[in-house]
Amino acid sequence: MARKLWHLFGVLTLIVIYHNVSHAMAFQLITFVTGLCIVLDILRRHSLIINQALMSVFHPIMREHERNSLTGTTYLLSGAFIIIFLFPKLIVTLSLLFLAIADPLAGYVGTLYGRDKIVGNKSLQGFVTAFVCCTIIAVVYYLINNLMTDRILIVSIASGLIGAFAELIPIFKLDDNFTFPIISAAGLWVLFYLFGGF
Length: 198
Description:
Elements (H helix, E strand, L loop, with lengths): L1 H19 L2 H24 L1 H11 L13 H15 L2 H25 L3 E3 L2 E2 H21 L7 H17 L7 H20 L3
Antiparallel strand pairs: 1-2
């Protein structure tokens, strides 16, 4: 639960900062923070003292396998870095909202109630949760921003499917904190292009 809350509030904080600074400043900040996390992860792998110190502070939000590998936070920030660099603000924000809310909620439901596995350890219950959550987020987002409101049902359902499949699909053995926002943003970019969201 601590990890899920860290994920939720961490990404929401990222969204708030992203919306209150210029794109150039946002890109500089995400570059700095991502770079810092990568450096700390490299240092952890080469220094037992640094690793133990960081693990003692962050152990409630870290998994055991992250003791000797990149953390989920580093993957998440790297994914955010890529989408901020590549995609327009409307798509970045919606992708990050999917990542902040749908991803941890789907993981939570999948862990507790995920009896029907469909891809690896991902379950049908988690997939449906991600779909419903992303669809609701999309409806609210499109209405608030007056985007594609004349076809809101179809674009919201399509957005929900994009978010759900982004959460489901494994890309090699990459962490889904990295792949989720990138797949979401790419899918949403196609959706916006096809349905006149730009």
